[in-house]
Each structure stands twice: as structure tokens, then as C-alpha cells.
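Reopening this one. Same input as before:
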Amino acid sequence: MLPPHIGRPMSHAGFMVLALVLLLGLSGKHQSGRYRRIDLLFPIIGLTVVLNQGLWAAGGFARLDGAEPLLALWAVFAVLSAMRLVNFLALEKRINGEVLQGAIAGYLMLGLAAGMIFSVMEYLIPGSFRMIYSHINNLTNDGHVDFVSLNYFAFSCLSTVGFGDIIATNHPAEMLSIIVAVIGPLYLAVVMGILIARITATETSAEVEESLDVAIDEKIFK
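Same output, byte for byte:
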């Protein structure tokens, strides 16, 4: 395990690269060529996240306690990224590897956003989450459930697995856990509906083209 003075800057640098990739990959206009308000908001939030992560990686905020606002901003950016991914998937006419990768990335972004929201809640309302089988390595210096464990819990909620080793201890945390558990299956249902519709449309289009080719050939050689 890397020491904190090395591991933390590398972690911030990794998140900065991830934010930069999302910002560059998802900032394009829709096929309609029109910008919406959310299209203008996305690059602003993304650029803010990239700059903040860069400053954290460089040690610029080493003496400031600004982790919670950054996590909240990251959560908003991750949710917007997932929404844009689904929107772009709906505009694709054919299913290919990039479409499938986008669908997986959207699901991962929702889990990451949920983990960050849980982390912010844990710091704002200490004790919002509790580990049934806690270990000293799963807690921060002030007794909070750590970021990694909360991300694990977030993906458990998102996938509706619910191992039960981490529980919500107050009503806001319980409501957030339920919301994440509802969003997970809804995302899968929406994405699967889009993919199935595109596959069906592609097969129908291929059948129509084949029928037209056969009709043209019969007309020419008749």
C-alpha cells in the first residue's frame, strides 16, 4: 500500500484524468445541433472538477478541508455524465462496441456518484452509515466509514445485492440508499430497452433492404 503522501496525490491525479476524459468525450452537441441549458452547465462543472482535482493533486489545498464540496461537485458531474451517456445511447442507430462500453460506463458513473454522495453525508452527519463487521482499516482517523467502503456500499445498493455488512443508521441515509437501489434497476431497464429497440430496428431495416433488393432483381430479370 502506498504511503499517504504518495497515494493521495496519485488518487487525485487519477480522478482528474477521469474527469478530463468525461469532459472531452461528452461535451459535444446533440445530433439536433442545439444546445440546452444542461449542455452549457456540463462543461462548466466538468472544468471546475478538473481544476480542483489538479490543485489537490499538486498539494494546493493541503491545508484546507475542502474534500466534501469537491465530492459533492464530483457527484453532480458523475450524474450529469451518466445522463448524457444515456442520451447519446438513445441517439445511436446501430449497436456497436462503443455503444456497449458507453452503457457500462454510465452504470459505473452512477455507482461512483452514489458513493460520493454517501461520503458527503457521512461527513456532514457523522455515523450515517455503520459497518456491522467493522475493521480499523475501514474507518478514517475520526471514526467515519472510509470512502472505499462507502463506494462498495453504493454499488451494493445500485445492484440491489445488499450484503448487509454496512447499514444506514438515519432516515436521510436510508432514503438515499433506497433511491440508489431504485435507480439501478431503472437504468438497466432503460438501457436494455434502448439496446433491444436498436437491435430490432437494425434487423427490420436489414430485412426491408433485402426484400427491396430481391424485388428489384426480380423486376430487372423478369
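So the earlier flakiness isn't reproducible anymore. For the record, The longest strand covers residues 129-131.
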